[in-house]
Amino acid sequence: MKVFFAGVPGGGTMGNCKRERQLSKFFTSRLWSYYYLIENKDGMKKKKKIKLFLDSGAYSAKTQGIEINIDDYIKFIKKHENKLELYANLDSIGSAEKSWENQKYMEKQGLHPIPVYHYGEDVSYLERYVKNYDYIALGGLVGSSSSSLIKWLDEIWKNYILDETGLPKVKVHGFGLTSLKLMLRYPWYSVDSTSWVMTGRMGSIYVPKYKKGKWIYDENSWKISVSSTSPDIKKKGQHISNISFEEKKVILSYLEEKGYNLGKSCFKMEPQDYSLAENEKWSEKKPKDKNKKREVEIIIERGVSNCYKLRDEVNIQYFLDLENSMPKWPWAFDMGKQSKSLF
User: Fold this and answer.
1) What percent of the chain is predicted at pLDDT more than 70?
2) Crossing angle of helices 96-108/70-80, nearest 10°?
3) How far is it, in rounded angstroms, from Cα 262 to Cα 250?
């Protein structure tokens, strides 16, 4: 299973972010959205040679009341085709027929986009894609509950995507898979996810389970809060400061193995016009009351507890290790075995 890292590290504009350059030594594959790239004219310039998957960004555009012009999308792909490993069809959210029309139109222009079938669409379109293409994508997976998605995915994998031996008939990409449960359950050929960056922003890191002297990636991992300013610090069993000694020992061992440490901080209150020292940062939002003091975090030792950039790096390495631990594609999906899983 190939993991394409989606999302923008550290804010800024997709494809033109200082943090993106800093992380280039970790990234081997990225998913970028055309919708966001067109806002940044230099977004595709001077890029490190990594595997790029271009998504049309149709969903994001629709939420902003914007319609993507298919001819402009085609022109963009042709201009940068040498930098793209894959690119998706300009799917039409809410209209499977329009998505199909766009697929055929792009093909007539000499392109080979990956067709996208969405959650809840007529299965006849899925059958069409499975019959006529060797690589398809499943979309519309964001926003629904895990249980409802498992029910739907089990049905379409079993009835339309898998052959009689349980092997996938085609390569399947999963768009926007933020759930490890769903990522590990099916024989995806590739997936993309923003989990690495969103989890870090929320103050947490992924840590694989540890059994019999080995890190285990084929089970749901720990997602443990480590931020020194996280509200989870007061919730038993959810923050590294209030878990068992043995659990903390395993997590610290994992960090050390990856070349990171937890970090140390202390705190103080200062007036809002206080000038921060080099090793200080505000740890809370600016109060509305101008006379109220604001909390400052003093970084004694830089680590994942006080630096989101380091949490990003740890999470990227987790997903790269997950990718490398997966069985070679294709592998058979066993419905009975999955039903008895620990998820």
Assistant:
1) 90
2) 50
3) 12
pTM, two decimal places:
0.89
How far the first Cα of the chain sits from its last, in Å, is 19
Q: Would you say residue 271 has pLDDT above 90?
A: yes
Q: H helices then E strands: how many in the chain?
A: 12, 15
In whole angstroms, give the CA distance from residue 322 to residue 218.
Answer: 8
Cis peptide before 113 (omega within 30 of 0): no
Cβ–Cβ < 8 Å for 32, 8: no
Model confidence at 341, in pLDDT bands (50, 70, 90)? very low
Per CATH, the homologous superfamily of domain 2-193 is Phosphoenolpyruvate-binding domains (3.20.20.60)
- Quote the distance between the C-alpha of residue 32 and its chain's center: 11
199 SS3 class: helix
16/32 Cα distance (integer angstroms): 11
* DSSP per-residue letters across 130-176: HHH-SEEEEE--SSS-HHHHHHHHHHHIIIIIB-TTS-BSSEEEETT
- Amino acid symbol at 47: K
| String of DSSP letters for 294-342 | EEEEEEEE-STTT-HHHHHHHHHHHHHHHHHHSPPSP----HHHHHTS-
- Whole-angstrom distance, CA of residue 207 vs CA of residue 318: 7
Distances (CA, A) of 296 to 45, 266, 289: 39, 8, 17
* Residue 339 predicted with pLDDT over 80: no
Give the domain ranges of the chain.
2-193, 264-301
Closest CA to 305 of 235, 228, 210: 228
The C-alpha angle 184, 85, 163, rounded to 5 degrees, equals 45
> For residues 157 and 127, what is the distance between their CA atoms, to the nearest angstrom?
11
Between CA 310 and CA 119 the distance in angstroms is 35
Phi, psi values for residue 256, rounded to 5°: -65, -40
